[in-house]
Design a protein that fits this description.
single chain, 201 residues, globular, mainly alpha
């Protein structure tokens, strides 16, 4: 059944899988990282920083997604879709290095803004590209397959992230997450030609 899925859709799924799985490594220990490295052992302050970091990400992403989506809809042709997917992944891939360099809360917030910009570019473009290339008559199956693979990927890397953190430290996990995220971006280059040649709906 998987063999019947077209090349672009499979590649988009695989890229989405690696992208989200990469961030699964980070989630189990991010608050601990803030306690140990940003607020220097103050859990109450760390909870505040983590809360505002979450707000910063979601507010930025939510404000940018609609205008980006409108731009992609009005600018017919798939070159922009490709580049927004690729660059969005690339920006998100470099975000863990921002965490690594952070020593103060404002630096975490800045990293979250950068992460949100990448996500706001990626999400509308990915949905658009996936919708346009999805195999007719298999829409529910292929969307379900994408969501299922993400669930397994994030769950597995979440567990692995906790184990790895107990053996190594946050630096290793941030670098690992960044590397896997960047792999997801370069996977998309494999279908650049096919996306470029797609006629707009």
């Amino acid at each position: 059944m998987l063999k019947s899925i077209n090349k672009v859709t499979k590649t988009l799924m695989l890229g989405d899988f690696f992208l989200n799985s990469a961030w699964g490594f980070v989630s189990p220990f991010f608050a601990i990282f803030i306690v140990e490295n940003i607020t220097k052992g103050n859990p109450a302050k760390a909870a505040e920083v983590a809360g505002f970091a979450t707000l910063t990400y979601w507010a930025t992403k939510s404000c940018l997604q609609i205008p980006i989506g409108n731009y992609l809809d009005k600018n017919h042709g798939e070159k922009d879709t490709f580049w927004f997917i690729f660059l969005g992944m690339l920006i998100m891939g470099f975000t863990p290095f921002g965490y690594l360099l952070s020593k103060f809360p404002w630096q975490i917030y800045l990293s979250q803004i950068i992460y949100a910009v990448g996500a706001a570019m990626y999400v509308p473009a990915f949905y658009s590209g996936f919708t346009k290339f999805i195999d007719k008559g298999k829409e529910a199956f292929e969307w379900g397959l994408d969501s299922t693979s993400l669930g397994f990927g994030i769950g597995i890397t979440g567990a692995l992230g906790g184990v790895i953190y107990s053996v190594f430290d946050y630096r290793f996990i941030f670098v690992l997450a960044a590397a896997i995220n960047l792999v997801s971006a370069f996977l998309i280059l494999l279908v650049k030609k096919e996306i470029y040649e797609k006629k707009s709906l």
